[in-house]
Amino acid sequence: MTRDGSVSFRGSRYSVSWASAGRAVEVRENGHHVEVFSAGVKVAVHPKAVLPGTVVPLTGQWDGIPVGDSSRPKPVLALRVSSPEVEVRPLKVYDNFAEVNDNCLRWREAAARAFQSW
Questions:
Q1: Total-model pTM
Q2: Are 36 and 27 in contact (CB under 8 A)?
Q3: SS3 label, residue 45
Q4: In whole angstroms, what separates CA 88 from the centre of its chain?
Q5: How far is CA 77 from CA 36, 47, 73, in A?
């Protein structure tokens, strides 16, 4: 049986009470019905599906399920990462940087020309 509380039989899925989810079950065909047993106890009876691929629900399948069980820790799904601190600088710093780069570029071009003429 699957964890969502259904069992596959002859190409269709039959729902079973949540209390039996994940357990081994026995499925028996009885005329026009499908019976599901868990540990020898009948836990569901369904009319047999007419077409393969049919999902046959069980009325009250989720009745009595504990909601909001806080005894198990929940897995962390995401972490919030703080944004990095950004230094605030005057624009003059960037102007100076651009000027130095321009000077370096001019020097490199002059060196390349001198090397070629050598």
A1: 0.53
A2: yes
A3: strand
A4: 40
A5: 36, 41, 12
